[in-house]
Amino acid sequence: MNWMRYIAVALINALGVVVGIILVPAPPTLAQSSPTNLDLEYRIDESGLQLPGFEIDSRGNSNLETVEITPKSLAELYQLRDRIQAELKKISNPPDINSNLEAWQYQLQLKQYETLVKANLQVEAQIKFEEKTLESWNQAIKIATEAASYGQQPESHTVEDWETAQQLWVQAIDTLRKIPRESFLSSKAIDKTVEYQGYLAIATYQRALAQQSEKNKPETPQNLSPISTANPQFPGFKLYGDTNRDGIVNEADEQRPEQWSLSVGPLVLFNNDDDDRNGLPDWREKGVNGAEDEKDLAIVHFKVSPDYNGSELLISVDETARPYINLFQKTAQGWKSVDLSGLTPLEFNSDIILGVEAKQFAHQNWSGLINLKASARKQGNIIATDTISMGVAPWIMSPNTAPVSEVHISDRGDNQKIVQEVKTIVETTDAKVKVTPGATLWMQGTQEIGYVQFPNAEGLKDYPVVLKGNRSAEIDDYAQSLMNQNFGWFEIGKPRQLDVLNQWADWYNNLAVTPALPEYPLGRIYYGTADNVSLNPEIIEFLKAQKIQGEPVGIDTSWLMVRHVDEIINFIPSFSGEPLMLIASPGEGIKLLKELAKQGYEGAAINRGLSTQTTVRATLNNQLLIQHNQNLQKQKIEPLINQLKQEFNLRTDQIIEIPALFSYSGYAWWPNLINSVYVNGELLVSNPKGPLIDGQDYTQEDFKRRVAVAGINVNFLEDDYYQELQGNIYSATNTTRQGNQEPFWQNLP
């Protein structure tokens, strides 16, 4: 255990005798995140432990008895804490300076008290660390227990089952790997990881066997159409769901539409939240895990008249939808899984209640449509059938102008000043700030937080749902960590290998949506494209399949270093309710510098305090740089403005050009003010570090004048930490935003 770092803590009784030296393993993360320094100053020699300032008392006594204690478990830490707190209880309070103690006695007692307090804090910190680690251990065991269930009767499991088992074993292993090596559980976690890797190999082998036994059918896009289901063919034999989308299935829903569409007919929810908080999305569970999970089911009533007594009642789902849904029947014993092939009879009842959940959103190979068929079988013959169509509620992207409920930012240690700035501003707007120690630095790129709308008995419900970035699991762990009760998580596609120039194409800084526009009441999605490489095509096809935020618009980002669309345009709200589009303008950037030079401020500093600091004169004298930006304005920005006027139905007065300059390689010459975050009336913007003229930042004042028409408060943040890494406050944060107040089916494009 030579890799462990130990902190020695002295335990001293009221008489000043050392009764123990405690060696407590302290993880570096704890030490870094601790608000105070808990390390004690001491030295140990042959006479025991010596505290600075009173190694030997004034009488020359050094009666010190030393016993070494090294906790090796959480239980021993609890015992140690009890022991320290017992000693603290004896002392109770620091010595009274007005007592009759001699100076050396007062100093000794004070040092004893301070030492015990520090020791108590240190052990408490270690206990919290070990308790959190134990939670990871227990979660890994729970996941592994579920994964192991697939090893029972393996011949009955499908390819999908074994794939789920694989994913569970991987999740269990990943959870174990989160246990720090400084923990008491580290050795056990290593042994368990090796064991689980063996089980993962078995699940992988079983999946391969299952695949060999199935026919290799290439997956083709679904061409299934909704079935005309307005009137049942057989009296007294009827299926119906929440046709009117009021969250309650009753007689009013028995009048069914001719065909299901996004605007009418029962909806099904992709059940990707984690109501029982076991680390797995609910659709992966084999049942309904409680009242909250039950709310996520699309309820279907199956009414059967007495004429069908003695019949077997069967339910089947069309083959295209079958891999993407789970179906349950509500029985006296609870919700019971239903065979989707229609081979196993339901429990007979005159009013059968079914619950449907989806395991995916609509995508390029599945329209999200589900045809549910009920059959009555008697003496081997089908005597009645009925069919209804249902569809999966689409995923909706949130624009930068929507109300914010939570802002996400990572605590990296060196960025605590900007974290506090964000909290100070955001918390005045009634939004929360979620600060996650050590999470991904670039929050905006690692996930796209949207939402779904689903009616239930309590009314229209908005569920935030995060789309995981198509990058390595290590980078994107944060997205999955957001999954919780009523907070969903999912992924589309896998990470892909791209050339150096396009390596950032799949970051979600390269994906955005406008606010509501004419003809696009839920906004229109746009993304960056360069050199025939764009955002992951699987993501684009997925967005198209949702069908509610328009055909995504590709925007040329080939001239940027990182090639992200968020470096060029952004949207903010305005008094009028119409959105304003901010667009980076090299032409306006050159004008701003020339204005400063004309007023005699050629020597003024740009990028003050940053490693890129220069002057107005030096920038204007760089003729190649100026020519490059003039070309960008003419060849890139002006054509883009014309394109977006047409694509987004924007007027000229809705477009605000923001001064910017770009280097030859495509980096912003000064902090890019386009990258702003709107939070409930407050605009969070990078401090541009512009020229100081009469005590005011010229670039800041220019920006405020340009966006004054919006009527929002502008806050310039000191995000130097990110600027030096070629990023900014927009890239470093992400937001959970509230959904549209009206249901999506009343706001279709």
Structure write-up:
It is built from 16 helices and 34 strands. It is an alpha+beta fold and 749 residues long. The longest helix has 46 residues, at 103-148. It is globular, with a radius of gyration of 32 Å. Residues 1-67 and 217-224 have low confidence and may be disordered.
Give a summary of the structure in a few sentences:
By secondary structure, the protein is of the alpha+beta class. It contains 16 helices and 34 strands.
List the helices and strands and how they pair.
Layout: E1 6-12, E2 18-25, H1 28-33, E3 43-45, E4 48-50, E5 68-69, H2 74-91, H3 103-148, H4 159-177, H5 186-213, E6 237-240, E7 267-268, H6 291-294, E8 298-304, E9 312-317, E10 325-331, E11 334-337, E12 351-358, E13 369-378, E14 381-392, E15 404-411, H7 416-426, E16 432-437, H8 443-446, E17 447-456, E18 459-468, H9 473-481, E19 488-490, E20 511-513, E21 525-530, E22 533-534, H10 537-546, E23 553-556, E24 569-572, E25 580-585, H11 586-598, E26 605-606, E27 614-615, H12 616-621, H13 623-648, E28 655-659, E29 677-679, E30 682-686, E31 692-693, E32 696-697, H14 698-707, E33 713-717, H15 720-723, H16 729-732, E34 733-737
Parallel strand pairs: 2-5, 7-14, 15-16, 18-19, 21-23, 25-28, 30-33
Antiparallel strand pairs: 1-2, 3-4, 6-8, 8-12, 9-13, 10-11, 10-12, 13-14, 15-34, 17-18, 20-21, 21-22, 24-25, 26-27, 29-30, 31-32
Helix pairs in contact: 2-3, 3-4, 4-5
